[in-house]
Predict the 3D structure of the following.
Amino acid sequence: MELERSVELVDNNKRSEMDSSKVKYWPEDNNNNNINKNKIQRRRRRRRRSVFLPKFGCFKSNDHPPTTMLEKPDVDGISEMESAFNIARDGAPTHLVITVNGIIGSAQNWRFAAKQFVKNYPQDVIVHCSECNSSLLTFDGVDVMGNRLAEEVISVIKRHSDLRKISFIGHSLGGLVARYAIAKLYRKELTRDVCQQDGESRVDGPGDQCLEEKLKGKIAGLEPVNFITSATPHLGSRGHKQVPAFCGFYTLEKAAFQASWCLGRTGKHLFLADTDNGKPPLLLQMVNDSEDLPFMSALQSFKRRVAYANARFDHLVGWSTSSLRRRNELPKRQHLARNDKYPHIVNVEAATQEEASPEAEVNGYQSDDIEEMMIRGLTKVSWERVDVSFSGSKQKYLAHSTIQASKNLLYQF
């Protein structure tokens, strides 16, 4: 991120020098001269401001990176990012990376990161920025969004017959949506379109005696590799201090819980207010396998699970819920130290999991126990934790968005 800012400063200086060289060719008319000078000055001021102002949505990379990236839209308007190197040699990347946006987000939010992945792994990956859950569609609920994402992933896999591996990266709410989607895709096999003469796909039937063994530990028939979340409220937003913007005031937290319907079904899911028909909240259901959806088996199938969390300045998602820790387990701030290679990374914990404990009983739950039950359930599998701080950066007050497009996500990929 800092490197790109330096490059942009150099480019701006070069353009300023070119603009200055053009002054000597202006007409001698004083009025035109003053008007042109004013335009140049305003343009320079805008360029200087653009260097320091935070960039939203589509974070831009260098105009001419060493590896050329191509976007290939399909008939539905969905696009994948792939290296032109592979296109030129008729190459076939085997690793599919699915990126999932957060609430009121879109695929555009992931364009910068997608370019960086393809730039760093030009021969290996196809990056698909999910488009099925954008804008107001993110209010439909974690389950509805998860179903849509699962269908979208299947459609992508059908178009690429050489895929062998799959990874997911979810930002904020997108991490919860991805967790739901992988449960839908777990042990699900499909025949690629390229192998079908009639253009239709089929699910292998029970007549295949080796089917169970073949699908064991697979996500949509592919080998699961990385499951990465950044600033994701794994424990929901209901708990005390889980939304830092409320400053720990119980009155504000209670008011937010009562007004969670403003964010549609998604708000109810996040604030654990979806207790219709006597069922436990969806996020609590997602910490165990159910008869229909093997949430934890799907999560456990990935080789690595990494939780990126903002240690400071994230006003929407607390450090505890995004890093899957109890508040008394959070590292002391005075012990945080910056990484030499990635200065915004201040703490890295190797993969750990809690000792096996009885599964959380979700039917007889009490509201005070929900957070603890979710932590116990989710930490039955190992997680690597990466704590991030944008302290000292002008983008620190937008940490929740900044962490999504940061190069930190390439760390350990």
